[in-house]
Amino acid sequence: SQTIHQWPATLVQPVGSPLSLECTVEGTSNPNLYWYRQAAGRGLQLLFYSVGIGQISSEVPQNLSASRPQDRQFILSSKKLLLSDSGFYLCAWRVLSSYNEQFFGPGTRLTVL
Amino acid sequence: SQQGEEDPQALSIQEGENATMNCSYKTSINNLQWYRQNSGRGLVHLILIRSNEREKHSGRLRVTLDTSKKSSSLLITASRAADTASYFCATDGSGGSYIPTFGRGTSLIVHP
């Protein structure tokens, strides 16, 4: 069966520090991968999505970037964190099929101080 | 703007009662998904309903879709305290981009 991993689960970083969040998927091939951010009590904002290795689409201009170095690995990065980067970051995957369900990882809680 | 919008924003009921949440959207869709999110956790996929389907069931969950009204509802029957969570709908546009758009969610509290 498929599983999705995200780490770390929680992270506290000072303003101006770099960021690297990793997401990996097991048990599937060539998934679409997504990074979302969720502010407290709010819905999900799509940040990036990828349909294949090295293919990244950005939905919102911001202080973040994403990379997909391997088929089942998706990385969210920043060179210098801002206070506004605080939030709950969720990785998701889906394989295009007859039902196209999208599944989420457990999330990373990022606090920028 | 958000494609899917849940209604109500918050719902408080007693254990054993039914909970109904609604989702409205603006443009034509390929499918619609419902998710549950417990506080501080990831989203759990509940049900996907295709645009050519009108109703789906999964255990105590019942989802309906009315494409003429551009709306969907999620019914949880015989609710339990463990159903306390936020519920989100997400829609895939008919353009084939496979980028779901999420609403802001309904916060459900089930009192024991």
- The rounded Rg of chain A comes to 14 Å
Low-confidence stretches of chain B: none
Query: Total helix count of chain A?
Result: 0
CA-based gyration radius of chain B: 13 Å
Main beta sheet of chain A, described?
7 strands, mixed
Helical residues, percent of chain A: under 10%
E-strand count of chain B: 11
Strand content of chain B: over 45%
Task: Walk me through what this model shows.
The complex is a heterodimer of chains A (113) and B (112). Chain A is built from no helices and eleven strands. By secondary structure, chain A is mainly β. In chain A, strands 2, 4, 5, 6, 9, 10 and 11 form a seven-stranded mixed beta sheet that branches. Chain A has a four-stranded antiparallel beta sheet with strand order 1-3-8-7, with no helix packed on it. In chain A, strand 9 (87-94) and strand 10 form a beta hairpin. The model of chain A has no long low-confidence stretch (mean pLDDT 91). Chain B is mainly beta. Helix content of chain B is 0%, strand content 57%. Chain B has no helices and eleven strands. In chain B, the strands form two sheets. In chain B, strands 2, 4, 5, 9, 10 and 11 form a six-stranded mixed beta sheet that branches. In chain B, strands 1-3-8-7-6 form a five-stranded antiparallel beta sheet, with no helix packed on it. In chain B, a hairpin with a 5-residue loop joins strand 4 (29-37) and strand 5 (43-50). The termini of chain B are far apart. The chains are: A mainly beta (113), B mainly beta (112). Chain A binds chain B through residues 6, 32, 34, 36, 42-44, 46, 49, 59, 88, 90, 92, 94, 96, 99-107, 109, and chain B through 2, 30-31, 33, 35, 40-45, 48, 50, 88, 90, 92, 98-105.
